[in-house]
Specification:
The protein is of the alpha/beta class and 412 residues long. It contains 15 helices and twelve strands. Helix 3 (59-72) runs parallel beside helix 10 (241-251) and helix 13 (313-322) crosses helix 15. The structure holds pyridoxal-5'-phosphate (PLP). Pyridoxal-5'-phosphate binds at residues 82-84, 107, 109-110, 150, 154, 179, 181, 201, 203-204, 213, 215, 412.
Length: 412
Amino acid sequence: MTTRTNLQDLAFSTRLAAFDQCPGNPHRPVATPIYQTATFEQESALDFGQYDYSRSGNPTRAVLEEALADLEGGPRAFAFASGLAALTAITRLLSAGDEILAGDDLYGGAYRLFSRILPRSGVSVRYVDATDPATLERAIGPRTRLIHIETPTNPRLRIVDLRAAADIAHRHGALLSVDSTAMSPYLQRPLELGADLVMHSATKYLCGHSDVTAGAVIPNDPKLAEALYLIQNGEGAGLGPFDSYLLLRGLKTLSLRLDRQQSSARRIAEFLRGHPRVRHAWFPGLDDHPDAALHASQARGPGAVISFETGSLETSRRIAEATRLFAITVSFGGIGSSISLPCRMSHASIPAAIRSAVDLPEDLIRLSIGIEDPADLIADLTQALAAASHPAPPPNPDRPAAAHHPHQPATA
Ligand SMILES: *Cc1c(COP(=O)(O)O)cnc(C)c1O
């Protein structure tokens, strides 16, 4: 079977299937077994084998990490229990007194981690509009050790110039970390453009089936890898063997899924752009997206997330509830299409004042396009947009009346 060293010569989709599923396994299985064991017997009282304890290392997780390192082009990868555990591990590279400069259009849970938990360890965070390199550079302070950005941002789908951000970080002695969740390594490889660290919520496209919560960090150099391994082992947030197996299983179809999702997303974005009830549609693959050219210069496709404005929260709510094929869920990146109102769901943990300062409108709808037939999705959106424009929309027989939830969602 192919080994890691010659994988690099193969096309991305070949590498998704052709990696070594079970290095060293005498039975030569073609799928990675789930090593559901906490500990491994030592060769003798004084000699360790390759594995001793699953927090420190597990063969199923190791195969996953090897595959992720290959796909992003880093020396090693680290799989974590969630995307936020992966981001937390990155913040552990800093010390009290250090500062993170973060993009201001950030995943809601990252904002919560940065604003409510990180300050306890003496690491401060400031936010900046990272889509403008000059603004980003001006914002760097003497204590800035890490620049953390997302591109495309979610849900506004704005683009940060990765090469420029890496240059700026390095000129000022800081690291650049990129949350590349919205793209996956199939579409964007930040390490090749100068980033020091790339992270994912693997819950989204890497898994693709909405059945695992997981995260990953891939550094660009062995020193950072060593530091991250100490954190993964020392804090114990590494991904368990069963979830590692599920993630490996989903990962193999990453390019197939995204090819379909992306071409459907393009059709749907064009449909939305031409629809009279849609005020503005955001999609990095539309030629009127202000950063379409920049995005095309650093990524291999626009992805499959679209957002649009309707002009009123009430209209947006009705559209979401009138759809039949789009699940109302906080997440994205799965094979099933979903719809959300980010300000009320995934980004509810960002204070309203900050949301409006970064121009995150209340009526914004985010779509994640799945693998369904795009004609069915467009027909569903057509009927939902029509239903939402009538004063009293008929009840949707496919969607049970919503239960009343007295508390705000916990951001996912
Ligand atoms: C979902 C998400 C996260 C958090 O990942 P979890 O797996 O939910 O912990 C971080 N960044 C982005 C861009 C996300 O979409």
